[in-house]
Amino acid sequence: MNTLLLNDNEEDIKKAGEILREGGLVAIPTETVYGLAANALDGGAVKRIFKAKGRPADNPLIVHIADFSDIEKYNLVSEIPEKVKILAEKFWSGPLTIIMPKGKAVPDEVSAGLDTVAIRFPSHKVAQAVIKAAGCPLAAPSANLSGSPSPTEAKHVMNDLNGRIDAVVDGGECSVGLESTVITLAEDKPKLLRPGEITVGEIEKVIGKIEVDDAVLNQLKDDKKVSSPGMKYKHYSPKATVILVDSNDEEYIDFVNKNNGKGVAALCYYGDEKNIEAECFILGEKNNYKNQAQRLFKMLRKIDEEPEIKTVYARCPSVDGVGMAVYNRLIRAAGFEVIKLEDV
Ligand code: TXA
Ligand code: MG
Q1: Contacts of 28 (CB under 8 A, 6+ apart)
Q2: Residue nearest to atom 29 of ligand 1 (CA)
Q3: Helix crossing, 200-207 with 82-91: angle to 10°?
Q4: Which residue spans of the chain are classified as CATH 3.40.50.11030?
Q5: 141 lines ligand 1 (CB under 6 A)
Q6: 312 SS3 class
């Protein structure tokens, strides 16, 4: 299959809409990461997403809409809980995904057999335009090969999926850089399943206390049931081994220099690179989690461009605010391997 590279002009967006209406796969930019879209109401089209990505069939997809009214218009949910309206008022359009009881129109392929469905209204103008051009809601996971870092630029999508999908719409770099915050309102109590740019604190300001699923910050035992199937898979990992180093600035620099050698690199904060002898990739500014979120996947992909790199010692971000999202992705990239320096 020849993958078309489309622009974000009117004509190309119309073309993307046509391909999607006919059951094809089109990668589209969103404010978080690029998504691999198909008509969410067409089970056959959705199946192709799983095949193109190599995604396990038990990992459900997010349905993307271009207006709140699309939820009812397309029968996506069986009920809109009151708190959903409050969250939507405050955070939509934007990087928040809300899980609700599934409606009749949603095929099992989207929800992976669950009785719930994840809905997201992206703020990216190109994403909205493609949904409108397609004339249907779009199921879209991140547009990477399953397991590799999510794509934040069209060229990342091409790297992973060229020849496996019909088209990519190039809308430039994604501004957030990490996937949306996922919260479920389909259970008794609201629960955070995946942290993102919209933080626990911001959500609690509008709907009160929420739970944070155990899998967000911890490695779950194999036999534990997960609320969000995506959380159980090894994720976001470059080919090199990533190890998180939990320490202060000085200890981190000393540690990397002591362990430096062939194939060693550092994923560090701006400024660290002046004192580190290994090759450095900059995660971002030390206490600027949005900056780190924006850069993380891009840096993991840059590390992949240098196959001679075998070990990456990464700074361990704090779990405050958006830091929780950066930590959540990085700890999965590291396969939960953390070195606490006072323990060494
Ligand atoms: O920012 C994003 O959310 C991006 C862009 C493209 O919108 N999409 C994205 O999709 O990250 P994906 O498939 O890579 O991640 C969706 C996550 C997975 O962890 C999945 O298990 C979870 O949401 N999820 C989807 N539907 C669910 C459901 N009904 N119940 C629990 N978890 C669900
Ligand atoms: Mg993904």
Answers
A1: 16, 34, 35, 37, 126, 127, 130, 138, 140, 143, 169, 171
A2: 117
A3: 130
A4: 241-343
A5: yes
A6: strand
Give the integer Cα–Cα distance in Å for 282 and 304.
Answer: 14
Pocket test for ligand 1, best of 61, 77, 111 (most atoms within 8 A of CB): 61
Q: What is the distance in A from the centroid of ligand 2 to the CA of 251?
A: 33
Could you tell me where in the chain the CATH 3.90.870.10 domains are found? Answer: 4-216
**Ligand 1 centroid – CA 47 distance (Å):** 16
Output the tens digit of pLDDT for each of the chain's 344 residues.
899 999 999 999 999 999 999 999 999 999 999 999 999 999 999 999 999 999 999 999 999 999 999 999 999 999 999 999 999 999 999 999 999 999 999 999 999 999 999 999 999 999 999 999 999 999 999 999 998 899 999 999 999 999 999 999 999 999 999 999 999 999 999 999 999 999 999 999 999 999 999 999 998 877 667 777 776 666 677 889 999 999 999 999 999 999 999 999 999 999 999 999 999 999 999 999 999 999 999 999 999 999 999 999 999 999 999 999 999 999 999 999 999 997 55
Which ligand is the nearest neighbour of the Cα of 228? Answer: 1
Minimal-distance CA residue to ligand 1 atom 17: 230
Atom from ligand 1 closest to the CA of residue 102: 29
Q: What is the DSSP string of 16-40?
A: HHHHHHTT--EEE--SSS-EEEEET
Ligand 1 atom at shortest distance from the alpha carbon of 140? 6
Residue 291 Cβ < 6 Å to ligand 1:
no
**241-343: CATH topology:** Rossmann fold (3.40.50)
Identity (one letter) of the amino acid at 114? L
The domain defined by 4-216 folds into DHBP synthase (3.90.870)
Q: What is the pTM of this model?
A: 0.96
Classified as helix, coil or strand, 275 is coil
- Pocket flag, ligand 1, residue 32 (CB < 6 Å): yes
For residue 60 and ligand 1, the question of a CB distance below 6 A is answered with: yes
